[in-house]
UniProtKB/TrEMBL annotation:
Residues 161-262 form the Pyrroline-5-carboxylate reductase dimerisation domain. Belongs to the pyrroline-5-carboxylate reductase family. This is Late competence protein ComER. Pfam families: F420_oxidored, P5CR_dimer. It comes from Fictibacillus norfolkensis. InterPro entries: 6-PGluconate_DH-like_C_sf, NAD(P)-bd_dom_sf, P5C_Rdtase_cat_N, P5CR_dimer, Pyrroline-COOH_reductase. Residues 2-97 form the Pyrroline-5-carboxylate reductase catalytic N-terminal domain. Signal peptide: none annotated. It comes from the Bacteria. The lineage of its organism: Bacteria, Bacillati, Bacillota, Bacilli, Bacillales.
Length: 278
């Protein structure tokens, strides 16, 4: 199986590195490209046997499965200008939430799927979110799930929960990382602990917490219960958090969904051009 990746930004690079390091794909059977070609070439420095295509057309002509890792507003132009290079026997995989499989199936005759990765996949961990177009062949469904299983726990989802699933699985590391950084900053500002010490403790804490959850030793509610001894210090901290943090993620989710719908509207306007030209 030959795989191509168009776009070597954050997520494109995560996919390339993770596929190679998990042995899901031999480097010689992976080709990447990027609008700024030097970025793809820098990635090749880490994996010398990986191929670099000069343009998207080379990727489409090389690969059986092609991951499109560009920004949502770049999809229509990229795909419409390379339409003649895309075979109906290929699988095209989008990694972005504002573009549906249905929209891509209206534009192209090939097999369509979506696989939204997470930064956690770089450690061969975390979830990936998978959806399939109506025409996607069962063999390709199996191949994509097998490929994503090498670097993540793939979860097949419906369109209506795509955004919130991405908020949790894909945006979540940034959200929780920001909260944890605020915790570290407050510890340094209000006590004598150094930033290095606080960062080490916080990092060890979140890694250990993850292992407790991974091994099913505790769930999140039972973990809170075990640490939060009645009448103890942790309980006082929880009281503050319950008063000041409970509604924060309501606001976060509201805003991410607003932004998502803004992006969907912009993308829809581009894809509607095809309908008007019929």
């Amino acid at each position: 199986m030959k795989v191509g990746i168009i776009g070597t930004g954050n997520m494109g690079s995560v996919l390339a590195s993770s596929f190679i390091e998990s042995s899901a794909i031999q480097p010689s059977r992976l080709m990447v490209t990027n609008r700024t070609l030097s970025k793809a070439e820098r990635l090749q420095n880490a994996y010398p046997k990986m191929k670099v295509g000069n343009n998207p057309e080379e990727i489409f002509r090389f690969a059986e499965i092609v991951f499109i890792c560009v920004k949502p507003h770049e999809f229509y132009s990229l795909l419409s200008s390379n339409k003649n290079s895309i075979s109906k026997h290929q699988l095209l995989v989008s990694i972005t939430s504002p573009i549906s499989c249905e929209q891509l199936e209206d534009l192209l005759d090939c097999n369509i799927a979506r696989a939204i990765p997470s930064i956690n996949n770089r450690a061969l961990a975390g979830s990936s979110l998978v959806s399939f177009g109506k025409r996607c062949h069962p063999d390709y469904k199996e191949k994509l799930l097998s490929l994503m299983s090498c670097i993540s726990t793939p979860l097949v989802i419906d369109e209506n929960i795509t955004r919130i699933s991405s908020d949790i699985a894909s945006c979540g590391p940034a959200f929780i990382g920001y909260v944890l950084q605020c915790f570290i900053n407050s510890a340094v500002d209000q006590t004598d602990i150094t930033k290095a010490q606080a960062t080490q403790l916080a990092s060890d804490m979140i890694i250990g917490m993850g292992k407790l959850l991974e091994k099913d030793i505790y769930t999140l509610p039972t973990l809170i219960q075990k640490v939060c001894v009645k009448g103890g210090i942790t309980g006082e901290g929880i009281k503050i958090l319950s008063n000041e943090v409970d509604e924060v993620f309501d606001h976060v989710i509201k805003r991410t969904h607003e932004k998502y719908h803004e992006e969907c509207d912009k993308v829809s306007q581009q894809f509607e051009v095809k309908e008007e030209l019929k």
